[in-house]
What we know:
The complex is a heterodimer of chains A (631) and B (162).
Chain A: E1 2-6, E2 9-13, H1 19-25, E3 49-52, E4 59-60, E5 71-73, H2 77-93, H3 109-116, E6 133-134, E7 140-143, H4 152-160, E8 166-169, E9 176-179, H5 195-199, E10 205-207, E11 220-225, E12 234-240, E13 243-249, H6 262-265, E14 280-283, E15 286-289, H7 292-302, E16 309-313, H8 319-332, E17 337-340, H9 348-357, H10 366-369, E18 373-377, H11 386-393, E19 401-406, E20 418-421, H12 427-438, H13 445-456, E21 460-464, H14 466-471, H15 474-486, E22 489-493, H16 500-505, E23 519-525, H17 531-537, E24 542-547, H18 552-556, E25 559-562, E26 571-574, E27 580-583, H19 596-606, H20 615-620
Parallel strand pairs in A: 1-5, 16-17, 16-23, 18-19, 18-21, 19-20, 21-22, 23-24, 24-25
Antiparallel strand pairs in A: 1-2, 3-4, 3-5, 6-7, 7-10, 8-9, 11-12, 12-13, 14-15, 14-25, 26-27
Helix pairs in contact in A: 8-19, 12-13, 12-15
Chain B: H1 9-16, E1 35-41, E2 44-46, H2 47-59, E3 60-66, H3 68-72, H4 84-94, E4 113-117, E5 127-129, H5 136-147
Parallel strand pairs in B: 1-3, 3-5
Antiparallel strand pairs in B: 2-4
Amino acid sequence: MIKLTIDDKTIEVQEGTTVLEAAESAGLFVPTLCHHPQLTPYGGCRLCMVEVEGARTLQPSCTLPATDGMVIKTSTKKVLDARKFVLTLLFSERNHFCMYCQVSGGDCELQNRAYDEGMTHWDLQPNWQPFEVDASHPFIVLDNNRCILCRRCVRACGELVGNYTLGFEERGADSLLVADYDVPLGESTCISCGTCVQICPTGAIIDRQSAYQGKETEVDHHVGVCVECSVGCQRDVLTRDNRLVRIEGEWDAPLNHGLLCDKGRFLPLEEDRSRLLTPLVRKDGNLKAATWEEALQAISEGLSKGKELAAVASTRLPVEDLALFKSIFADGLNAGVVTTFEEGAATASIAKLADKLGKPFESRIDTLKETDAVLTLALDLVEEHQVAGFFVKRQLYNGTKLITADSKQSKLAEKADIKLTMKASEEGKLLSQLLAALENTAENPTLSEAATILHESENVCIVYGKEFTANADEDTLDLLLILAEKFDANLIGVKGNANSMAASQFGLDAPLTLDGVQSAFVLLADETPSQKLVKTLENVPFVVAQAAYGSKLTGNADVVLPVTMWAEQSGTYLNMDGRMQKAVKALDAPEGILTSHEALQKIADMLNIEVDLDWNTSLMARTPVVEITGV
Amino acid sequence: MSLLDIDERILQVVELVDLRATPITDLKEPDEDGVTVGILEGGINNTYNEEVAKRMRERCKILVALGDCAVFGGVPAMRNFVGCEAALQRAYVDAESNDSEGKIPSSPELAQMTHVRAVHEVVPVDLHIPGCPPDADVIFYALTELAQGRIPDIKDEKLHWH
């Protein structure tokens, strides 16, 4: 431990702590701009200068390591004067006129720091050099005129996301934030994750969707979990007057620590499907608006029971809804098939393996954040489960080795040290070849090299997705276990949708077979049905669809129940590494719309079915593939 | 004009002061032998503004810059990014609303347009009250303090412009 004195307070901190962190741990406020808790200290803006006893000049506290016996002063006249001078230089360097900036009035860190210092004006003449605004990107506007050159965005793009799109060209006052080799952001390698927008302290990087829609003081926050894939990132949904304004990542979230991908941050605000606002019942061949009572009556008359009934649900639904769905259709009506749209592709085979082993065998995503070698099996983490991909990509420049094994084009493979190819559904063969390579019997030098890397690396992760699990037979999975043991590797399975793992725990992972089925209940919620599903259901005589948006499937259905979309309901989600997390309601649903849970309950009441609402027990009844936490 | 945002409270201010000159009273300029407080709104946009600022400085013991235009240059200062010539050309000749005979006004009687500056770039200023416009409560606070012989302290909430 190190003991130092800051503003007459004696503080004890761990070795390696910076003076800034030490001051913050003692509840002292030192203003910063270029510093961000998720980034490596940079020391660029000089706002956090402090006086160090014995030192000739002021020192930046964000990069200064605390040492034993140090005496620090954070608010002497010398420090305060320096702060004001730094702010004066920053304000006068570019167009920092608050009255025509999107983020002024509370959302700008530069303006807020000037307020803290009581600055009514700045003494230097502004530098009236205009820079071009880059509005080429669909979601992000990049305005160098508002930039304070703190490079938070550049560091976030590299250090956190591993994308290295943003950088600076020129020097000094001419420094220019650019994408790649100075191409328009919209034509660059940007993946639209929006981390730069969230981390920018000024109005230099703003997002188009929420610009001028509401300041921090005018919006409501709803902290919950993203439902776009099974990573389960924590995010903050900002609303104003029952309207979605913006989505941000939660910096303090232990899983994603502020990161989101375009699917979680920007795309939900681009929703343009037509909303279903009333129940519909088919009369004389046409779908007609109806009351809930009429729709429920039509369901009780048309829905068959037992083997003639099929029920299928979205894995974007909360655990509570999936449990109720199962209770009604599997236990209450004994439907021939009760499953999800994914039909267990991402989970069924590994869940069986866990059943067989009688214990979880997968690891937490956290192991992927600090790993020396990663092997991905039939999984492109640039296309899906992107935030998990960020964890891998950002380590590649620090020496972490990436080995990809794919049967088709993969963007992640472009970054791989070793790119293995295999034929579709021949994962088992590849695994046995790797095993052979380990025993020096492989003829293929690439395979040998891959095996050597995996064998010699200390922390190894093997990550696989639904293409692997859907094809994997028992032998392949046994090979996977042997490989994991040989390489001392952590196994991580990405599970598809937000609640695919919960569906698996409930046993909702059977293939959707419709032989002899007379009626089907399709719980779409806010999911868009696949063409395959629409086609499969075309021959079923009676179809009930419960959905938020109109689609070909609801158009073909005989009864349609309008329900809430993701932002209009609360619920629990079980992510790919077994974390139980809550999503909270952010918006009120349009009038007359029920949540999926309420609609299911109404159906149960109509059909006189006793439902089991104790989902916790049934969720834990099956051995999970990875330990479930946060129950 | 933002002074009028203080509504009926302006009567309380009038009671406290001996109002010598404003642009809308008979006397447009401060007394030659000087006044205690002078308030300037607006940035320095042309040679006439310069004259006014210099005269105010000479005749006022305390010179106050009120509002973002006086404190920073304000919205008119956006023309500094393109320069006077381009701004005049755009406004009087190239603008879609002009006919083909649009021309830049020039007369020896007109003040010469300049780079837009904050008041303090031309003459020393004793008190800055930023805001676009400054909040009515802040204006009232500042005026009553000045009228009672104190220099208002513009900080924290009084500095925040929402």
